[in-house]
Design brief:
The structure is a single chain. By secondary structure, the protein is mostly helical. It has 15 helices and no strands. Helix 3 packs across helix 5. The relative contact order is 0.12.
Length: 326
């Protein structure tokens, strides 16, 4: 009889088994950790987490799940403008939360607007965390004149409100660059403006933690065996200061979203053709006293719920990662 061709083995290889084992072990340790225990013991935090995840998924899946595409101006019908919510007199079932002055569906507009707000919020917090963590590490570990210069710059910046710094940067870019170029760079400018007002909190916190960590035995031992200071900061000090950074990042996300909404409400953020929560509130505010209350109320409620849920998660994370606050 002819030999039958052997089928390739379907068994996982050794590296795959090792990776699977590490994932299972890491997940088991997380389920047994104090952080997860604190999470499952707080119904309010579970609700806040569920609401945050739901809002984020709804925002980033808006192109596929939104009832209408508010970004396509060709699909809009001015005859649908100023329609009240579906349950009100004169409402339309296809526009659950009503429409705005251009006939755009408010529910879809809130989903797309929240997407823009979250993109700017996440990007600005990530940039601020990177810059602030690097400067904080250098300031705390090196010390001396470097520490003095970085901290004095941080102290000066703390004297100005975050919204004022963002307005200043946005105004400078708008006055230096041509109008078309400035509009094309709306997102990068907003991210830079918001991040420039948030990095100080990261830098000061990381500096304080670094001052404590650099005097511990494992850092002194690394110095004795001749490890380069940069490697000591990255490999040894940085992992031990990431807990506070994560907490500040969560709380800063809510602040970044509010700052973006404020800038857009003032007309110096995202233009009306690319709605965010701030622009939706600004547009609706113009018609608030003429009876079209839904144009302002619903985006405002969405903004409040998002910021409140993120703040609750940030407060819980701060307490869960700090045993002294339990």
């Amino acid at each position: 009889m002819a030999e039958m061709a052997r089928e390739p083995s379907q068994q996982p290889t050794a590296p795959e088994l090792t990776l699977i084992g590490k994932v299972v072990d890491g997940w088991s340790r997380f389920l047994d950790s104090d952080v997860f225990y604190s999470f499952k013991r707080s119904p309010l935090i579970i609700v806040a987490f569920a609401v945050t995840v739901l809002l984020i998924l709804g925002a980033f899946l808006a192109p596929w799940i939104a009832p209408h595409d508010t970004t396509n101006m060709a699909s809009l019908n001015l005859m649908d403008a100023f329609k009240p919510p579906a349950w009100s007199v004169g409402g339309d079932g296809s526009f659950l939360l009503g429409t705005d002055d251009q006939g755009r569906d408010m529910l879809s507009g809130i989903m797309f607007g929240m997407q823009a707000s979250l993109v700017i919020g996440f990007a600005s917090v990530a940039l601020a965390a990177i810059v602030g963590t690097i400067l904080g590490l250098i300031s705390g570990y090196v010390g001396g004149r470097v520490d003095s210069v970085i901290m004095r710059v941080a102290d000066v910046q703390l004297t100005f409100p975050a919204i004022l710094i963002a307005l200043l940067i946005d105004g400078i870019v708008g006055s230096v660059l041509p109008r078309n170029t400035a509009e094309e760079l709306t997102y990068p400018v907003l991210i830079l403006a918001i991040a420039s007002s948030l990095w100080v909190n990261f830098a000061r916190t990381v500096r304080g933690s670094t001052l404590v960590e650099k005097n511990r035995e494992y850092v002194q031992a690394a110095k004795v065996i001749g490890i380069h200071p940069t490697l000591i900061m990255v490999r040894h000090v940085l992992p031990n200061v990431m807990g506070p950074v994560l907490v500040i990042a969560t709380l800063s996300l809510a602040l970044a979203i509010l700052t973006e909404a404020t800038l857009s409400f003032l007309g110096v953020g995202i233009p009306s053709s690319e709605p965010s929560l701030g622009t939706l509130i600004r547009i609706g505010q113009e018609y608030l006293f003429s009876g079209e209350w839904w144009m302002t109320i619903f985006p405002g409620i969405a903004l409040v719920i998002l910021v409140l849920a993120v703040n609750l998660l940030g407060d819980w994370l701060r307490d869960a990662l700090n045993p002294k606050l339990r």
